Each structure stands twice: as C-alpha cells, then as structure tokens.
Amino acid sequence: QVQLVESGGGLVQAGGSLRLSCAASGSISSIYRMGWYRQAPGKQRALVASITSGDNINYADSVKGRFIISRDNAKNTVYLQMNSLKPEDTGVYYCYESNLGSWGQGTQVTVSS
Description:
Layout: E1 4-7, E2 10-13, E3 18-24, E4 33-39, E5 46-52, E6 57-59, E7 67-72, E8 77-82, E9 91-97, E10 102-103, E11 107-112
C-alpha cells in the first residue's frame, strides 16, 4: 500500500499563499488519479482538486483560478499551490490516491481574516 505524507500546512492571513506537498512512499506514475480533499470544521470531506496520470485536472468551483494542482512523478510527489487564500479555505487537507484508495494523515490549513 502506498503511504502518503502531507506537509506545508500552517497559519496564513487572508490573501496569502501556501504550497502543500504530498509525498508518496512509492512510484505514483501508475496511479490513475491523485487528489486533494479538504475537511472544514463540522463539514464532510470534499474534493478540492485532482489530477490524473494523463494530467487531466479537476477543481472545485470554490478554488478555480486560485489553486493549482501538479504532480512530479520523478519525485513521487503531488503539490497544491494555494493562492489568494480565504478564511473559508480553512480545514484539514488530505491527499488521496485512487489505485488502492489510500489517504494521508492530513495537514491543517488555517486562514485568518
């Protein structure tokens, strides 16, 4: 099973930026889809962005134009560049891979107003 480890979360003011990283313990080149999900306080986990092995990308409407997902197969890492952050972006961000359905442990992002 692929182990996923997220990093890069933290506390940032509204309008700021963060870059999240998801490092996999094995090769991600054969993983069809990898994604970032967010769980806000009191809410269900929801898709933020996903990217396929063919670089097909999908974003939640709320982050379009602000977030960028990318994958580096050579480094077995998926990134989420988050710009123009808003307080409603606050939550725990989880990395996901679709082949075995593995999740990372999550990284907290807090955006202050």
